[in-house]
């Protein structure tokens, strides 16, 4: 064994030689030639110096021979010849690169036409307008009416439609010209990949990216425009439009655009961080087969993605930690088990999003829209959710410990078994909210609106930090008072038969005690004709509070 190991070690080149060879292979061709020529010249000089030291009168004898001057002329002219050759070689390389760039530019222009759909077959419509001088018969026309009619020519509009049709008799079965044009558009997207990846030079990277994002915009533009024409922008997607969008996401063109944009795990898209703000990629699928999903899911990590448009996108387990997502649009997006810890989501739109198991610890969602979200077992621990809109949100078993929910709109939300320990719910609107089994230990309910909320089966109501100014129905308040024997609560009672309807405009009631600090305002959607009666009931139920109607807003509706 020792002999074999010694032979193997002797057969392998030494480490210094390996390093020298690896260094030479990394050099350019011209650099290697110069290094070899220098070594040969140095070797020749050493050889001649050794001869001059050992042979008597070496230079005299060498000068007398014919071959010496030939060798001397060769050595003298070699550097000049090398410089001429190097110049011509570089000039030839530049000419070839210029020709190649011209060819690539022409190819890119042609591919750009195909990707943009300029070649697609469309119907040709011709409109012709004819003017006729016929006038209607008018009995006893006046001079003014006759003059106006004579100056008016009757117009007829003629429309002709021209389109191609495949012949019925073909020798070989094939697709139509229109289907072929669509196939060519998809193929052109894949042909654009070498330009986007920089295989034809870095100059084509950004134009290729602009072309790909513009094609994605054009693909979803028509459906988006139909959504913008809706009278109520907050209404859910129309069923027909939703089917179209899902079909577009699975179309061959959308798949091709996704594969090219996210080629090599999004490595080439990473080279353009300036495009991430306001990037338009709705309904993109980051779990598409063929993608390097592990790398793609790190695409937006710690990036500046302000205003990014990802509505309806499939973003399961995506990493968005510490990403700036202010004013981003995630409406209807699929964010199951996504990581958004520490993300900036101020004023973001997460309406109808799927946040099941999503991690939002420490995220800033102030002013965000989370209406009708599905967020079972989501992690909102320590998140900033001040003034968010969470109406009708599904937050089963959500972790909201130490979350900031001041002024949050939680009407109709489902929060069973939610963990709300230490949560700040000051001025939050919890009308008709389901809180069965929710844990409110250490929560702050100051000035919260709990009218019609299902709060009687909530845990640790006796450990709520503050009830001051909390709006409760009389029956619920009596039940809680008897069950937990609470001390001075300073809550505000409402009649049990109070009729609150979302169809009515909000009426603002101001409740104030002797101390200016204890002043709270609650808005209730009630009919105008019942305002006076409700004010009297408020004063009877809350004799320690001075109550007045301070504003009736007919232009804003909660």
UniProtKB/TrEMBL annotation:
User: Residue ranges of region Disordered?
Assistant: 129-148
Domain of life, per UniProt, equals: Bacteria
Which UniProt keywords are given for this protein, alphabetically ordered?
Membrane, Transmembrane, Transmembrane helix
What are the transmembrane regions?
32-52, 67-87
Coiled-coil regions listed:
none
Q: Where is the composition biased (Polar residues)?
A: 131-148
Q: Which PANTHER family match?
A: BTB_POZ DOMAIN-CONTAINING PROTEIN KCTD9
Q: What is this protein called?
A: Pentapeptide repeat-containing protein
